[in-house]
Amino acid sequence: MIIESLVVGIIQANCFIIADPATNKAVVIDPGGDAPRIAAK
Predict the structure, then answer these.
(1) How far is 6 from 30, CA to CA, in rounded Å?
(2) I need a labelling partner for 32 at 20 to 30 A (CA). Which of 10, 11, 21, 41 fits?
(3) Are the CB atoms for 21 and 12 separated by under 8 Å?
(4) Is 32 left (phi over 0), alpha (psi -120 to 50) or beta?
(5) How far apart are CA 26 and CA 9, in angstroms?
(6) Measuring CA to CA, how many Å separate 9 from each of 13, 16, 21, 36, 41?
(7) CA dihedral for 33, 37, 39, 41, sign (positive or negative)
(8) Which whole-number Å values give the CA distances from 18 to 22, 29, 32, 34, in the listed order?
(9) Element (H, E) at 25
């Protein structure tokens, strides 16, 4: 399990990415903005 956090958007919201490398699936929590940056992770 991988858990990463990013600060995104104009209001500097905390975005979290939780991923499972075994299944290659992930969940994004509170993406706020800056979708290209989040997708690149």
Answers:
(1) 10
(2) 21
(3) no
(4) left
(5) 20
(6) 6, 13, 26, 11, 15
(7) negative
(8) 13, 8, 16, 17
(9) strand 25-29
Give me the pLDDT at residue 32, please. 84
End-to-end CA distance of the chain: 14
The answer to whether residues 11 and 32 touch, using CB atoms and an 8 Å cutoff, is: yes
Q: How many CB atoms lie within 10 A of CB 2?
A: 10
Over the stretch 1-41, which tens digit does the pLDDT of each residue have?
999 999 998 889 999 999 999 999 999 999 988 888 888 98
State the pLDDT at residue 9: 87
| 3-state SS, residue 15 | strand
